Amino acid sequence: MEKLTFYAVSAPEKLDRIGSYLADRLSRDVVRHRTGYVLIAMEALDQLLMACHSQSIKPFVESFLHMVAKLLESGEPKLQVLGTNSFVKFANIEEDTPSYHRRYDFFVSRFSAMCHSYHSDPETRTEIRIAGIRGIQGVVRKTVNDELRATIWEPQHMDKIVPSLLFNMQKIEEVDSRIGPPPSPSAADKEENPAVLAENCFRELLGRASFGNMNNAVRPVFAHLDHHKLWDPNEFAVHCFKIIMYSIQAQYSHHVIQEILGHLDACKKDSPRVRAGIIQVLLEAVAIAAKGSIGPTVLEVFNTLLKHLRLSVEFEANDLQGGSIGSVNLNTSSKDSDEKIVQNAIIQTIGFFGSNLPDYQRSEIMMFIMGKVPVFGTSTHTLDISQLGDLGTRRIQIMLLRSLLMVTSGYKAKTIVTALPGSFLDPLLSPSLMEDYELRQLVLEVMHNLMDRHDNRAKLRGIRIIPDVADLKIKREKICRQDTSFMKKNGQQLYRHIYLGCKEEDNVQKNYELLYTSLALITIELANEEVVIDLIRLAIALQDSAIINEDNLSMFHRCGIMALVAAYLNFVSQMIAVPAFCQHVSKVIEIRTMDAPYFLPEHIFRDKCMLPKSLEKHDKNLYFLTNKIAESLGGSGYSVERLSVPYVPQVTDEDRLSRRKSIVDTVSIQVDILPNSIPSDDVVSNTEEITFEALKKAIDTSGMEEQEKEKRRLVIEKFQKAPFEEIAAQCESKANLLHDRLAQILELTIR
Questions:
Q1: Which pLDDT score, from 0 to 100, does residue 677 have?
Q2: Family, per the entry (predicted)?
Q3: Band of pLDDT at residue 702, cut at 50, 70 and 90
Q4: In 3-state terms, what secondary structure has residue 329?
């Protein structure tokens, strides 16, 4: 062997003939099963290959590869392993110039077949599989760095290589959750365990993938997981995509996410558990990608997830109506719960993705999701809800608001205008999202996420009478000019939402707790002296509505409102620290503790609380009195003139046209609404409905100016927001009425 090597190195032009001779001898020996001679010939080929690095080695390599192919084709496991070992040695040699005519198609096919070996002897089977994996690793190393000859990345090769590696990786044990990258295998494990060796090879393959080759390497993974039904359960799928996300270059992460989204679209009619498995894989991928570059796929991720959320709700609604999706007739209740798994997985993914985005992107996503929520009067949302029905629409509203709640969690804006722009606040506070107690809870929680810029919400949790608010150590800053401007523009909208939310007949304890927190957060974050007065007016109006009970609420709800008002006035009185105001509130609470504990939150929200039969016979000392509050605040320099004007929520067009009962019934003064028929003997028409409240306002001259301002604001708002057809119809009716009046006056004058 030494003489042969010396001769080959001295006369490299003879290498071609040496290789041909050895190849011929080895071919005959393989056919005749002369294993000893085969081993000697391969040893000679290996040593010559390692010793010679001249340009003349190219023809010799062809003879060498021809012999390796002969060994791999033989049915002898020992020879297959021998051929593989020789190929791996060859693969580790760095050639000076690449050989563009050389192809490795046969080796890819043969090594992939060896990875799937089912030899009867377990040890031999493991040995062949390890040889197959090492062979694939050799092919990858030999070809992957030649950019001009990237044949290994072609789909026909990747469709063999990737499934072969995954097939062997399935033996690996489940790894930890997404806290960190999967552990790297040790050197000993790489040599003995096919699963660990396959995983190592898979990592190496993905690590070498470039921008143009990424998709070809990832798509066979989906085909393998689909074929072997590995989405449910999806531990192996999650493990695979963790390896993919940690192995590829960070800037290509969005490619993998796009592929997962595309596969989710392709599987939209599969079983709920399969879809949930894919979404959970997406969550894991997003969790890793969110730490680096996510690329341009942010809106695409949310758009696809929201589309599948709608589909899931649609399937669920169809099941509830007795329809069956697909050819298999499953139990409705189990399928319903499976769809909920899908929905929860989508919401969790949206929330996790959203919470990892920078603030500027998160505000865009908030607007994007809010634009999808079906609310009255907006045609901007692109979720098709035509097939959902009322129940499905409500379900999709709840799901989208839960998604929004996850995205807004932890969001901190410097000004409230940034967090709650008009285009976001208007649909959020729409009466369409007040038709269900759960919807109202979600809306309030979203508002709390955006309002609470100093993390005070946890200190306000639960509705209660706080003995000393100072103990809570509430953080607050001076109200900035932008926040003051926001309250001037949108304050009435917020008050109206809270006022109407308190008077809903399906409220539960959590609703009252969230309403109380809303009032407290507005006081902390947004309240100057003017806003404090408005909030106190709102609280007194709620107390009056509970006493008068125009909405026929149950006694529990009336007492719940009274308890809410008590808790809030106790809080605000201590926040503004006016001693006389605090004294009045404390005195009322003390009397209630003795005579009417059901007016306090600690009692009314306790199980088996005794309720009164009526509120009409109660002593006025049990109520918070406007004149006492005005007197106490006036002494401390507050402008209390507006306290004497009862709070009235603004009327919107949605209230008139939506399916809910119109709040026009509860508003005392209705501006710019003419009665349909007017008696002919009336000479003067009044646009106000004459009620007790209207008369009280007319007598109270101090509030006339405020009343006029409110009228003008309502008229302007009506012309800004009302549909053109409605305004035209009213103007026409007014013109006809005016014409009739003039005719009547002219006729009377002639007489």
A1: 32
A2: Belongs to the EFR3 family.
A3: very low
A4: coil
Indicate the angle between helix axes 272-289 and 253-266, nearest 10 degrees: 170
Residue 130 CA to residue 128 CA, distance in Å, equals 5
User: Which is it for the CA torsion 140, 145, 148, 153, positive or negative?
Assistant: positive
Asked if 414 contacts 339 with a C-beta cutoff of 8 angstroms, the reply is no
CA angle 277, 283, 287 (to 5 degrees): 150
String of DSSP letters for 458-523? GGG-S----S-GGGG-----PPPHHHHHHHHHHHHHHHHHHHHHHT-TT--HHHHHHHHHHHHHHH
CA neighbours within 13 Å on the CB side: how many for 627?
2
- Say how far apart CA 369 and CA 373 lie, in whole Å: 7
Cα–Cα dist 249/230, whole Å: 26
Chain centroid to Cα 500, Å, comes to 29
Give the DSSP H/E element, type plus range, for residue 371: helix 359-372
Burial (Cβ within 10 Å: 0-12, 13-18, ≥19) of residue 180: exposed
The CA–CA distances, whole Å, from 392 to 171, 184, 220, 322, 721 equal: 43, 47, 37, 14, 29
Q: How far from 714 is each of 484, 516, 728, CA to CA, in Å?
A: 21, 28, 17
Give the integer Cα–Cα distance in Å for 159 and 179: 31
Rounded to whole angstroms, the Cα distance separating 603 from 594 reads 12
Q: Tell me how far apart the alpha carbons of residues 386 and 616 are, in angstroms, rounded to a whole number.
A: 48
How many CB atoms neighbour CB 571 within 10 A?
Answer: 24
Around Cβ 137, how many Cβ atoms within 10 Å? 22
Q: What average pLDDT does range 443-461 have in this prediction?
A: 92
What letter would DSSP give residue 496?
H
Q: What is the pTM of this model?
A: 0.74
Tokens of 105: 């198609």
| C-alpha distances in Å from residue 251, one per residue of 107, 168, 242, 289 | 32, 29, 16, 9
| Cβ atoms 672, 733 nearer than 8 A | no
- Cβ pair 666, 551 in contact under 8 A: yes
Residue 182 in tokens: 């999967």
Q: Identify whether the C-beta of residue 451 lies closer than 8 Å to the C-beta of residue 410.
A: no
Q: Which residue has the tokens 């607050």?
A: 476
Q: Are 166 and 160 in contact (CB under 8 A)?
A: no
d(CA 345, CA 88): 44
pLDDT digits (tens, 9 = 90+) for 399-436: 999 999 999 988 888 889 999 998 899 999 988 888 88
Q: Among 204, 200, 205, which Cα is nearest to 220's?
A: 205
- SS3 for 716-727 is HHHHHHCCHHHH
Helix/strand/coil for 271: coil
Query: Cβ distance 218 to 244 under 8 Å?
Result: yes
Quote the CA–CA distance of 534 and 277 in Å, as a whole number.
51
Q: Exposure of 750 by Cβ count < 10 A (0-12 exposed, 13-18 middle, 19+ buried)?
A: exposed
Task: With H, G, I as helix, E, B as strand and everything else as coil, classify residue 445.
Answer: helix
Dihedral-angle region of residue 62 (phi above 0 means left; psi in -120 to 50 means alpha; beta otherwise): alpha
Give CA torsion, residues 30, 34, 36, 41, to 10 deg: -40
Which DSSP category does 311 fall into? Answer: H
The type of residue at 226 is D
576-605 pLDDT, tens per residue? 999 999 999 999 999 999 999 999 999 998
Q: Give the position of tokens 């030494």.
A: 2
Q: How confident is the model at residue 723 (pLDDT cuts 50, 70, 90)?
A: low
Closest CA relative to residue 12, chosen from 44, 59, 45, 47: 59
| SS3 (DSSP) at 24 | helix
The CB density around residue 412, as the number of other CB atoms within 10 Å, is: 13
pLDDT for residue 224: 95
Sign of the C-alpha dihedral, residues 168, 170, 175, 178?
positive
Token readout for 365 is 């996503």
Question: How big is the chain, counted in residues?
Answer: 751
Q: Is 386 helix (H, G, I), strand (E, B) or coil?
A: coil
